Amino acid sequence: MGVEVRVEGLTKSFGRQAVWSDVTLTLPAGEISVLLGPSGTGKSVFLKTLVGLLEPDRGSVWVGDQDLPRLRERELYEVRKLFGVLFQDGALFGSMNIYDNVAFPLREHTRRPEREIRQIVTEKLDMVGLLGAEKKLPAEVSGGMRKRAGLARALVLNPQIVLFDEPDSGLDPVRTAYLNQLIIDLNQQTDATFLIVTHDINTARTVPDNIGLIYHGHLAMFGPREMLLSSEEPVVRQFLNAQRIGPIGMTEEKDADELAAERRSGQELPPLPPIPRQLRPSNGLPRRAERTPGQWCRENGVMPPIGSFV
Ligand SMILES: Nc1ncnc2c1ncn2[C@@H]1O[C@H](COP(=O)(O)OP(=O)(O)O)[C@@H](O)[C@H]1O
Ligand SMILES: [Mg+2]
To answer: Is 137 a domain residue?
Structure first.
């Protein structure tokens, strides 16, 4: 069963460069959360801070009753075993074949005999659809296969929390659709708590239970998918609907003059598109506990965007 991760007042800078400050959010146990944000806003830094690879200036990351930034090296080493991380580039060892890459954490962190290792590696490769590719080197397979090999490696110690750094970057739309389905299925099979950093709006709209948006050094909003998708908050609305009108400009923030000009020119935001259904687990897997957007709005007393539910 996955565990809850509670982030409180987390703040990170490098020297005089503030990355983000006062980030507070809870990743609910067993749920899928997505973190969005323009490039360079510190999403990868956030994931690395969660697992204790980077030290925050202030704040807490609670996993159970342990606050990661306060732990000593030895305790941190133990807690880290709860995490599986899929780094942005897959981070495979180029000189090792896929099998040895996936087996690596087991050989490094456990004393399991090779017979058991074979069983576990085979199971994980099967989960991500890579049986038969064991002997291939990372350079000999496609980008999508490298991502899936990285994912098998992230899952090999049966993590309670899985962090994905842009699992869909560099993949075409069809491969992204397969990967998203795989993520939904793996969440159903493992019950682990997932956090996915992505740029892909379609992924953000259809995969997670919760969405967060980092913007301008802060967490602009974090909450259930339906809430963010129906949000009127300009930054959230602009980003999730890939719109040009709004506070985010080509380089960073638009300045006050630009925004005033936008208002004067009478450009109106188009209506919010309908909220899509969340992807469901493939046939044969049990259903996840699901809320329809309409249910969610009723339960939370939120007005749905007009004509929005399909
Ligand atoms: N180890 C580091 N030392 C100094 N600066 C860093 C380090 N890692 C990231 N940064 C800086 O932090 C900012 C956020 O980077 P990153 O988390 O990679 O952004 P994102 O993943 O959202 O595109 C960038 O300005 C980057 O240069
Ligand atoms: Mg990044």
So the answer is: no
Q: Report yes or no on 123 lying in a domain.
A: no
Confidence at residue 236, expressed as pLDDT on a 0 to 100 scale: 82
Confidence of residue 120 (pLDDT cuts 50, 70, 90): very high
The answer to whether the beta carbons of residues 243 and 270 sit under 8 Å apart is: yes
Ligand 2: distance of its center to the CA of 213 in Å? 14
Which atom in ligand 1 lies closest to the alpha carbon of residue 54?
A: 1
Alpha carbon of 44 to ligand 1 centroid (Å): 7
Nearest to 60 by CA among 97, 14, 12, 15: 12
Report whether pLDDT(155) > 80.
yes
* Residue 292 falls inside a structural domain: yes
44 Cβ closer than 6 Å to some ligand 1 atom: yes
Q: Tell me how many degrees the CA angle 187-38-308 measures, rounded to the nearest 5.
A: 65
Structural domain of 67: 5-82+159-300
Local confidence band at 308 (pLDDT 50, 70, 90 cut-offs) = low
The domain tally of the chain equals 1
Using a CB cutoff of 5 Å, list residues around ligand 2, an ion. 44
pLDDT beyond 50 at 310: no
HSE-CB for 308 with a 13 A CA cutoff: 20
Q: Which two tokens stand for residue 308?
A: 């929005």
Q: Whose CA is nearest to atom 9 of ligand 1?
A: 45
Query: Is 253 a member of any domain?
Result: yes
The CATH code of the domain that includes 296 is 3.40.50.300
Distance between CA atoms of 288 and 185, rounded to whole angstroms? Answer: 10
Which atom, in ligand 1's list, is nearest to the CA of 15?
A: 4
